[in-house]
């Protein structure tokens, strides 16, 4: 099998009804299959999937989270390439071939992503053509990371999302590919142990891409492929659970992958910046999010002391070929955004 497009689902029957038809209709190439990996759903998800005979179902008895779910699913996949595709993504005609063609021609590339646009803005544009189509927050036209470990994208910096005017329609090397739609070499995914299931969800794809690059592989965005992502399908952007996972997992990712030479310098600065963010949440009456961020820092401190995370860091340092991937920005995106008012790359 050339490629398996794997959609991870947990009680996402509404998403499957809305978006699975586009995946089935636009993913019909020879040697390509569509797979729904179900994380122990208790709704009518499997009944909906069963109405698409060409779709293979992988049943898992319980919810392993985003990271663990994909690890369980890809352990059962033998295709050369695997696409990790969110259930709230609408794909377009010929969306897959540009990704596969690029991977075929670049053996040193371990993962690629398409251009990811906002499904909501597309729907608004269809109703009113004067409304612009915007990039989607999670991935946009390719992800990067600043020197302090904050992720950002071509087309999205902090919370500012650009209109798509074709300004990022060039294929380029990036730091991370979005977990909303990421095409990976299945063998490399397994070689690196896949997504870190202790993350459960959020930032796990950035952690994987960091490991890939440190071991000599590259990541790219191929904007000739276009998909539309609803975003916030599982958790809304201001949900305290999302705040908790983003704060905690971002720190865990840095701990796992940053060389000792800069690790503790980064963590000292991040301690101050995270506390400032918590204070800002309290001032703006976001008490639940502030408490979530505080718990995240506390749990990060516990988790990094565990034998599991110490072993992960040790392995990453021992197998590191590239210490500082060129796709890490040597500046603070937070400083640029809030003090220099820089909203775009």
**What's the pLDDT, averaged over the residues?**
96
Low-confidence segments, given as residue ranges, are: none
Q: Beta fraction of the residues?
A: 15-25%
Q: Termini separation (Å)?
A: 39 Å
Radius of gyration: 19 Å
Helical stretch tally: 12
β-strand number: 14
Helix content range? 40-55%
Largest sheet: 9 strands, mixed
Give the overall shape: globular
Structural class: alpha/beta
Order of helices and strands: EHEHEHEEHEHEEEEEEHHEHHHHEH
Structure, briefly:
This protein is of the alpha/beta class. It has helices at residues 13-25, 45-49, 65-74, 97-105, 119-127, 186-191, 204-214, 240-257, 260-283, 287-303, 307-318, 333-338; strands at residues 3-9, 32-39, 56-60, 81-85, 89-91, 109-118, 143-146, 151-153, 156-157, 160-161, 172-174, 181-185, 218-229, 328-329.
Write the layout of secondary structure elements.
Blueprint: E1 3-9, H1 13-25, E2 32-39, H2 45-49, E3 56-60, H3 65-74, E4 81-85, E5 89-91, H4 97-105, E6 109-118, H5 119-127, E7 143-146, E8 151-153, E9 156-157, E10 160-161, E11 172-174, E12 181-185, H6 186-191, H7 204-214, E13 218-229, H8 240-257, H9 260-283, H10 287-303, H11 307-318, E14 328-329, H12 333-338
Parallel strand pairs: 1-2, 1-4, 2-3, 6-13, 7-14
Antiparallel strand pairs: 4-12, 5-13, 6-12, 7-8, 9-10, 11-13
Helix pairs in contact: 7-8, 8-10, 8-11, 9-10
């Amino acid at each position: 099998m050339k490629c398996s497009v794997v959609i991870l689902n947990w009680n996402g029957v509404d998403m499957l009804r809305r978006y699975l038809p586009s995946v089935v209709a636009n993913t019909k190439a020879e040697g390509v299959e569509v797979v729904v990996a179900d994380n122990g759903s208790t709704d009518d998800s499997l009944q909906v999937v069963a109405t698409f005979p060409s779709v293979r179902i992988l049943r898992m008895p319980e919810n392993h989270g985003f990271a663990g779910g994909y690890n369980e699913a890809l352990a059962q996949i033998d295709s050369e390439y695997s696409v990790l595709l969110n259930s709230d993504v609408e794909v377009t005609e010929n969306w897959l071939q540009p990704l596969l063609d690029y991977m075929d021609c670049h053996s040193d590339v371990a993962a690629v992503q398409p251009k990811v646009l906002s499904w909501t803005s597309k729907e608004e544009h269809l109703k009113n053509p004067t409304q612009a189509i915007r990039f989607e927050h999670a991935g946009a036209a390719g992800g990067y990371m600043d020197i302090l470990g904050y992720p950002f994208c071509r087309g999205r910096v902090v919370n500012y999302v650009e209109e798509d005017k074709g300004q990022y329609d060039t294929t380029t090397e990036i730091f991370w590919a979005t977990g909303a739609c990421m095409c990976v070499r299945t063998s490399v995914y397994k070689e690196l142990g896949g997504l870190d299931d202790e993350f459960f969800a959020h930032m796990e794809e950035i952690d994987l891409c960091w490991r890939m690059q440190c071991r000599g592989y590259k990541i790219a965005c191929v904007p000739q492929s276009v998909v539309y992502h609803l975003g916030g399908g599982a958790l809304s952007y201001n949900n305290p659970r999302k705040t908790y996972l983003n704060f905690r997992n971002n720190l865990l990712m840095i701990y796992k992958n940053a060389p000792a030479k800069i690790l503790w310098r980064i963590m000292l600065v991040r301690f101050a910046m995270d506390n400032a963010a918590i204070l800002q949440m309290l001032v703006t009456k976001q008490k639940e999010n502030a408490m979530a961020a505080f718990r995240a820092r506390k749990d990060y401190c516990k988790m990094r002391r565990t034998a599991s995370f110490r072993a992960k860091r040790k392995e990453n340092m021992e197998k590191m070929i590239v210490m500082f991937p060129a796709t890490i920005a040597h500046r603070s995106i937070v400083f640029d955004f809030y003090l220099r008012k820089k909203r775009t790359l």
